[in-house]
């Protein structure tokens, strides 16, 4: 019997061949994570990596038998001792020094030494700052919160630098709704929102460096951010200023806490890779590889230096 061609095509389209492919065997690697600054003693977290399809309690992957040390060239700086939960801490209570290149060395039984090198940049030198309450706009809502403008000017050292800025206030320390904010020395600071910030500062790390420092327009609307990042491509070795407007300040707030962080390039690239992974569309693109500067394993060893400033709220008691 002869079948029409369209019918034969229909039969063929209805046929499926299912081929099962075994996933490649995953080879676990040691993961080392350590962020350091001149404010804190040395520490690191070490564990074994897990594949995407590996279902296992992550607490079983902590590595407790590593030998961990920090060196400066051929000079021993500190030794880190295991404290549980994969964490190793300083036994000498030595603080890092900004501008010095350090190497973290991790030795595991039967494995080649794992090493990573980085440094904490020099701190930002703030040359000027101000905080002022803005007058309410004409015909404004009488219940609208007072807006404050903050301006900071700082010096940029020669060379490529990476910055992060955040402004904090003490959060509400009562979980119950309707309770006004109480100032408590033990309260936790939280980031506050800003708008109308200086062009060039980006909310996220996911943009390319070239885009982060150029003025941008978002459909004519204000840009709202909690935390800002910047590179110094356009003002290398010169002074620079940041400004922003916020009304995210409680009537009980007496002061704001500003932190400008100078980030090492390793730290910046690591944060950038995390940000890109958080924003990527799995239907359109491949996951962005998480940045690692650890030789012989995975992870990141990176430095940063904070410059802190307390800004009294105008008219605060």
Ordered list of secondary-structure elements with their pairings:
Layout: H1 5-13, E1 30-36, E2 43-48, E3 67-72, E4 75-84, E5 87-90, E6 101-107, E7 114-119, E8 125-133, E9 148-155, E10 162-170, E11 189-191, H2 209-212, E12 227-231, E13 239-246, E14 255-263, H3 265-279, E15 298-312
Parallel strand pairs: 1-15
Antiparallel strand pairs: 1-2, 2-5, 3-4, 3-6, 4-5, 6-7, 8-9, 9-13, 10-11, 10-12, 10-14, 14-15
The ordered H/E elements are HEEEEEEEEEEEHEEEHE
Q: Kindly estimate the percentage of residues that lie in beta strands according to DSSP.
A: 35-45%
How many strand segments?
15
* Share of residues in helices: under 10%
CATH hierarchy, class of the largest domain:
Mainly Beta
Mean pLDDT metric: 82
CATH topology (fold) name of the largest domain: Immunoglobulin-like
Extract low-pLDDT stretches: 7-13, 176-185, 209-221
CATH architecture of the largest domain: Sandwich
Describe the global form. Answer: globular
The secondary-structure class comes to mainly beta
Cα end-to-end separation? 98 Å
Biggest β-sheet strands, sense, barrel = 12 strands, mixed
Rounded to the nearest angstrom, the radius of gyration is 26 Å
Compute the number of helices. Answer: 3
| Overall domain count | 2
Give a quick set of tags describing it.
Immunoglobulin-like, 9% helix, three-stranded antiparallel sheet, mainly beta
Short description:
With 317 residues, the protein is mainly β. It has helices spanning 5-13, 209-212, 265-279; strands at residues 30-36, 43-48, 67-72, 75-84, 87-90, 101-107, 114-119, 125-133, 148-155, 162-170, 189-191, 227-231, 239-246, 255-263, 298-312. Strands 1, 2, 3, 4, 5, 6, 7, 10, 11, 12, 14 and 15 form a twelve-stranded mixed sheet that branches. Strands 8-9-13 form a three-stranded antiparallel sheet, with no helix packed on it.
């Amino acid at each position: 019997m002869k079948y029409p061609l369209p019918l034969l095509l229909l039969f063929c389209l209805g046929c499926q061949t299912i081929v099962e492919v075994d996933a490649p065997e995953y080879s676990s690697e040691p993961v080392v994570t350590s962020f350091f600054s001149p404010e804190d003693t040395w520490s690191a977290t070490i564990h074994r990596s897990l594949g995407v399809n590996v279902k296992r309690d992550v607490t079983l992957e902590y590595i407790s038998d590593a030998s961990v040390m920090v060196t400066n060239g051929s000079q021993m700086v500190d030794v880190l001792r295991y404290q549980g939960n994969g964490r190793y801490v300083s036994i000498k209570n030595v603080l890092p020094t900004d501008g010095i290149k350090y190497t973290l060395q991790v030795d595991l039984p039967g494995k080649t030494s794992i090493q990573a090198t980085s440094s904490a940049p020099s701190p930002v030198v703030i040359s000027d700052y101000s905080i002022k309450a803005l007058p309410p706009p004409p015909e404004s809502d009488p219940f609208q919160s007072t807006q404050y403008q903050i301006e900071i000017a700082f010096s940029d050292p020669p060379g490529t630098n990476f910055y992060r800025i955040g402004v904090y206030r003490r959060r509400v320390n009562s979980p119950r709704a309707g309770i006004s904010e109480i100032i408590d020395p033990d309260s936790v600071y939280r980031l506050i929102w800003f708008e109308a910030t200086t062009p060039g500062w980006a909310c996220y790390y996911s943009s390319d460096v070239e885009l982060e420092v150029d003025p941008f327009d978002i459909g004519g609307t204000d840009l709202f951010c909690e935390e800002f990042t910047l590179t110094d491509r356009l003002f290398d070795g010169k002074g620079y200023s940041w400004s922003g407007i916020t009304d995210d300040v409680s009537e009980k707030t007496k002061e704001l806490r500003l932190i400008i962080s100078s980030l090492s390039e390793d730290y910046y690239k690591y944060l950038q890779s995390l940000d890109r992974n958080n924003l990527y569309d799995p239907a359109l693109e491949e996951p962005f590889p998480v940045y690692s500067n650890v030789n012989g394993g995975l992870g990141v060893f990176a430095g940063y230096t904070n410059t802190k400033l307390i800004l009294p709220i105008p008219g605060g008691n």
